[in-house]
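Q: Could you fold this chain for me?
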Amino acid sequence: MNTTKPVCQFRILVVEDQEKWYESMEESLEDILGGEPTRYHWDLAFHATAAKEKVATEHYHFISIDQNLPERPGELVMSKIGRSLWEQFSKTQRFSFRIVYTAYGEPALGANAIRTGKAEYWEKSMTGRTRPERAIYSADGWAERIREILDREYMGYALRQGGEFLPPGIARVTRRMAGSCRVEDSPDFQVPPEKELGYLKDCLVLWESALHLAWAQAMALTQKQYADTGVVATNSETPTDREIDLGRLLPEIAKQGWLGAWGKTIGAGDPETFEGVGGRFLEQTSSPFRQLRDRLSNTFTLDSLQEEVQSSRDPLLTLLDALAFWADNPLLTHVRPVKKEQARWAAEALRGGEQPVEQMEFDASAPIETVHIPENNVFIRWQGPGKEPTLVNLSPFVTVETDENTRRPVLWIISHHRDGIWYRRSLRDGTVHPWKGIAEKERKSLEAAWG
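A: Sure. Below is the predicted structure, expressed as structure tokens.
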């Protein structure tokens, strides 16, 4: 099993309970991907519970699931367990390319998985022959197709997923980028020359949006009801200062057990010293894109754009990893307790597809006032130090308002203050505006956070 963790590594999870099948599959992975251990890493789960434990601590780009699985070791093998697993992952692992790889195909089940977008449905070849037109793959064909998807198709796939499941504003940019890197009906990632400059500019917009949202989320987590780190914000909105703030905030959040699942997409760092927390995002995403911004501002030529597109692929991969957190853990608005069940909540998930909000219910503890929650407050369901998930209020660092013309939600990130006026950044277009109508309670919270 390869264990080296490189700069930009594709991670694969194989869920397979039959040892003989897995031995053949691992041999194929070793033959086809093993020559690049810093580019590809794979893990094995022999049952559904192990698979759930794996995705709780690691972010995977590709998940292969056997249809017939036991829930735990020694338990009955059933197709409904495999089906339940890929249905769960379709909601909690939005950016993972998911397939079912089974020796006992059920056409109706496979058609449903494909139609609903939950997973592709592949059959194991009993003859050793691969027939891709019928989605039948030998172990070698399976491994070769995985490599092809990761190398050529994954980026476009993740961008399309982002356009559907990321917060409004950010989702619009990922949809536009997905269109820029797709030629006709080909799933391959390729940016035509006439779209290169626009694509690179969108990369920078996407990076800055992720950076500001990550910073605002970290600021919210450091408040008294959560990590209470005592770290104060820098009164500046430059990307460099946001990076510096995150470099100070994230280790303190991790020390108090509040990093949760966020760590697997931005970098969990050393579990004992907390060194390197957030480094995957700050060093492998933010720094390269900041340098790209400087080059495009000062020295770029049209002839160099294709080279910039290619060199931006690895930073974009780690940026998509960071963004996957908000696809799997949506921002919530109109949060309210379900009647008679104070640990049960209803909310609207802010997502960027055709339907920008999605009604949902969930269980969570909540150290918040339940009598009156302002409509502009934004929450996120979070796994803190305790066993049960809790609701974290991101406001006043992140707020939402309804656009009067489109009636769609617009997310705002707090920016800075000057001459007694607080400013916010729109996630829709990146512009910064004075916060008109800021409530006194919000102002006091911000003043305390800025020290």
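A (continued): Residues 331-450 form one domain.
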